[in-house]
């Protein structure tokens, strides 16, 4: 890690030049060290105040609430320390301007903060302390500024309704409830089937919580419509962004065996079919069982019902006119390449390489993509050599991953270091 900053600078310099298709300049991260210090200091003070004001009806509940807040806060500090947040003055000024637009138009006086994370998925969240976090990957899905403002209004809605705080307090009450205590005693008293009983009970609680979250999402949407309406922006934005997020988990492109041959067969390297053969899981029978849905912007429950609700409350007077400001357009145009760099900077070398390959198969003359592929491959080779490849390349997962992604992971795992070196040589500038 000692040379990571130097390597990143060299990498950024390598992609600064323009190619024939696009003039791309990565986000300037030179102030990230100072930003990290300032953010840590800011949130240390904010979290201290939150912890000081924790109240509950019982000491047991208060202990659980404190524990949850500690976990949330430690996770947030980890993100700060890992440079997860993008610190760039122009970007912050732009996003804060949109945040303030919603707050001022709705006469909301509380202190809010907006941050931009390097995360590559189409998501956003509210931390419960007045902070709205936008994932950079959301810009891959957004088509206009109005959609971004609606997302911000939605997250303000969660904060305005104190959803994070109430969720934590509800969990504390449930954990110390007579129902849970008695059920725990019952399970412990059983000689056989404890794991099954505990699992069924936990699943039931999780589905109950899912139903509660569903109600909160509808509430946040409802108040977001009210907040957003006062901005006088296109009311259709709430519908169009939810339509996109409803399908955002579906992979829009893929890589086939023929694609790998087309991209990688060059000079002394030839792709082998055996590298893509996936070993059958002993648990394949269970691999496709539906997972319990987790809460996030892109996996919010029942998008279709929420879209219908927004149509009802926003009115049917939709126009085709949308706002695409110069600042929004600049971020949007850079988002494809910048997202790959963000993934690389977060050490997600496998995913950065995979996403770059999908673009490169359609644009084999693209020098920026070629450089991004090269630096990711170099890191993957280092990891292979050190036998730590699983840190940087995800595992095969039949529930979560697409068939194409699992094929890619299998390919990487089956490659020898000598094979990787041949591919790297072919992408070396």
TrEMBL record:
GO biological process: proteolysis involved in protein catabolic process
Names of the cofactor(s): Zn(2+)
Name of the protein: Peptidase M48 domain-containing protein
Family: Belongs to the peptidase M48 family.
UniProtKB keywords: Hydrolase, Metal-binding, Metalloprotease, Protease, Signal, Zinc
GO cellular component, one term: membrane
Signal sequence region: 1-20
Gene3D superfamilies (alphabetical): Metalloproteases ('zincins'), catalytic domain
Domain Peptidase M48: 106-313
CDD domains in alphabetical order: M48C_Oma1-like
Any GO MF annotation of the entry: metal ion binding
